[in-house]
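Here comes a specimen:
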Amino acid sequence: MDDKRPGEEHQPEAPAAEEPKPHFIRMKTFYFIMLVFTLIIATVGITVFALTFGEDKAVEVNSPERQEFQKLYSAYDQIEAQYFENVEEEALINGAINGMVEALGDPYSDYMDENEAAQFMEGISSSFEGIGAEVQERNGYVTVVSPIKNSPAEKAGVLPNDQILEVDGESIQGFSTTEAVMLIRGEKGTEVTLTIQRGENADPIDITIVRDEIPIETVYAEMVNDQVAHINITSFSENTYEELQQAIADMEEQGMEAAVLDVRQNPGGLLNTALDISNLFVEEGKEMFEVQAKGEEPEVYLATGGDKLDVPVTLLIDGGSASASEILAGAMSESAGVTLVGEKTFGKGTVQTANDLSDGSNLKFTTAKWLTPDGNWIHEEGIEPDEVVPYPEYASLPFLDTSVELKDGSISEQVQTAEKMLDALGFDVGEIDGVFEEEMEQAVTEFQEENDLEADGVLNEETMYAVMDQLREKINTEDPQLQEATDILMEQAGLATEEAADEDADSEEADTEEADSEE
């Protein structure tokens, strides 16, 4: 029976089309869904594994962009796209890093490109070619901390606190220390002319220096007398500790019973070297210095056992003694009771760390401050000596400009400097007033006669060099600071001076003669 409704026309059914088998369709869909689900699970698992156990860069790929660099990126993109000339990508990046370092306002922090970094490391670890002077940026000027002993800079008359205004006529005001050093250094035998400001009111002077190989030797020693050795440390480099040990051994063979250690005009160097040397003088277990990083408690460095110098010592310091020299001075003074003689030190109480970057460049910046054993931070203050002995005025006179002759009628600061030099050498120049008059002319003539020069009373190039050479020799041989340090040391050590020994001998001889006369 048909289930048709009334009135509905009955239509014959068309033959049904062949349909796919239902069970086949359901099986394909199931496998497809399972395959997709499995792939998703596998992908998630691999990603989680990579992020958890992979290298740091895997995390960085998915890390959010650092918003503080958006302005930097925008500036870089604008310059690269719109600057009217082609720009070098590396120059822009180096400039950006330099800008960040300069924004610290710290003269001891610096960014060095690959070449500058190589020269920096060369200067610490081996010899290099240049003029041999430690410099730093101070108040916008590249300033000499101190020339290296026996270097071309020292021989040419460069002094601590000289401000270098120009290098070969090119102004370097605003240059970083590293940029200035790149200009000043150069091949052995070549010349470089530094325009120097010495003192606030003096006129700038030009000093031409022939570059040379600056030796790695940093310790010089000699006997002051039969009992006292003078040991001069010029910098703290890789081999300084070994050089000092050898110098001590040499002096002991020559009869050393006491020693004057000298770090005058020593601009510093490697921290580890300073600690090794400090350890020679500080008793085991006593503090040598402290380092304090940001947000951390001070790290205390104590002296250890091992070799110790067991003879009385004094230490010579001055305004050119900086950084590692001050670490040594602080340790010897506060933990070993050593007497400091001379003038106040430079005042550098910070520690720098040099970090190599991937391309060979280097980022050197201040990472901590250091304190003396008593907890004093000497930064920009310096260390005061126990016995203040100033340099004589003639030791810091400016270099004479040999290109300008000085003669009767000349009036200038150069004349006044020459008057002071000749006066220090024992010649009567009359009133020291910067006026070249009859008495000055006579003094020049006498100097020329004594030194087999043409005696015309004119300060020409040859005579000027002879005056400066004699004055330098006087400074080296008549060293009031060394003499005072030696006298203090001999008194502390109970050693008799030559004068006292002579007096004792005369007294004994007189007593003998008196006894003979009484008999």
